[in-house]
Amino acid sequence: MGVSHHDIHVLDRFIKPFGSILFVLCLTFASVLLGVLLSIYCSDWTWFSRFGSVITVSGLLLVSSPVFDQGVYRAHAKAYAFGSKDENGDSKVTDEESRKTGNKVLVGIVVSIAGTLVWGFGDLLGAINVC
Which one of 21, 23, 84, 116 has the fewest CB atoms closer than 10 angstroms to its CB? Predict the structure, then answer.
């Protein structure tokens, strides 16, 4: 079954990669690595703190993954679908796809929290005398 052209936003094909957990985690780890390396090279840990903002944005990308995965218009279309019964006869309103999306949103929240902490306090690592 095809998707109506009314349900496809003009930017859907460009934003899909931003919902990928692999893409977002690569962006996160690259930001951490680049922030640490620049901080060590410049002897200025405010660089690491600044890259915390990129980490926060990475987490927010995953929180927004339903928009990226399903398209701008269709992201929440299932919210109004009818529920079903599970094997025990209990009401069930989610499916496997929505549970996977929920897991990505949870990872996005954790990454956003970590990025915000780095953003706010990352420069303090330079104040710690390790040697």
Answer: 84
